Amino acid sequence: MSDSTILVVDDDLHMLELLVLHVEGAGYAAIRAENGLEAIQILEKENIKLDAIISDVEMPKLDGYELCSQVRELDKFKELPFVFVSAKTSLEEKLKGYGVGGDEYISKPVDGEEVVLKVKHIIDNKIIHHDMAQQIIESRNAAMQAMNYTSNLGQVLQFMQVTSEVTEFDALADKLFAVTESMGLVVVVQFHTPAGIINYKKNGSVSPLEANVIELARNKGRIFDFESRTIFNDKDFSLLVLNMPVEDSEKYGMMKDVLGSLCDAVESRVKFVSSNTVLREKDATIHTVNSSLQHIDRAYHDVQEASMMAIDEMIQRMEEAMFGFGLSESQEDTVRGIVMYTRNKAAEVFEDGKELYKEFEKIHNVLLNGSK
Predict the structure, then answer these.
(1) Rounded to whole angstroms, how far apart are CA atoms 53 and 295?
(2) Nearest CA among 335, 339, 342, 346 for reference residue 306
(3) Same domain, yes or no, for 261 and 299?
(4) Where a domain ends, among 277, 311, 336?
(5) Residue bearing the bigger pLDDT, 208 or 334
(6) CATH of the domain at 178
(7) Is the peptide bond before 194 cis (omega within 30 degrees of 0)?
(8) If you write DSSP's letter for every residue of 226-252 in order, what string do you get?
(9) What is the dihedral of CA 67, 68, 71, 72, to 10 degrees?
(10) Domain that holds residue 121
(11) pTM for the whole thing?
């Protein structure tokens, strides 16, 4: 049984009770609020303790976005997990939810299991991140001191140097975070690889809403701004900057130029790492094929040798046994002919099998030569 308490907010009483039913069924305690104003009154109670909020978006007087914005202004609940529930699923709506500080966006009609799983994931994730918050602040301060000794463009040049031999996406993301952290930036990176989409975030996991927003914004041009966040899109990756210096227009413009150069450097390495990954997978396939062919060759020759030995042994025993059968010489010759015919046909079958093996060898050679 969980000790967590979740505030559920919805002006549709039927939907409110349905959400409460799912929440309580998963072992959480639930507090009901029939609108955003009532939710704020609950939050302002001195001894209130909450672990998450699930809120409808479309509500009179105070909608879900406004509620979330006001929640984020309360020091006690700045990091409180906030989940939106809405029938509106466009990029613009999700950007609104993300912009005011939401952690997840669940589409109506609601799937109870989905709600519970996502809320549990966010609560667990926030607990982990809470312990790391002080470490992140200390790391950011140390990075700002390092900026006294080098320029932003120097950091980009250094990135190009240190990633010249990078062959893994994990390592590439780590090098990228080292540069952006030295610039005082918090970023999320999304690589589009031959094996699928990979998301990375320094000192934490990427929330489902973050990943979804980045993916939906890929068709918004090279640079896409919304509030204090900026997404840089390239062919094989996107970079989401969470804290662009919008209050300083000059610094903001300079940072865009620097990050544009950094993204060009990242893109070239993404192509290399993707190609390297494909080559490694191809080499592994060729190695598997080669090992299988060797095994087939050994097994084939073993079967051939055992089969021919068994036939020869049968012929020898038949020769010994025919003395007691009372067969005429012509009958014995007939039996011998049948046996020898069978032996020769078996030998022909094995010879045909060698031709099949040669065809496998041709396939292996094509794969091998194609990888060079």
Answers:
(1) 60
(2) 346
(3) no
(4) 277
(5) 208
(6) 3.30.450.40
(7) no
(8) ETTEEEEE-SSEEEEES---TT-HHHH
(9) -150
(10) 5-131
(11) 0.50
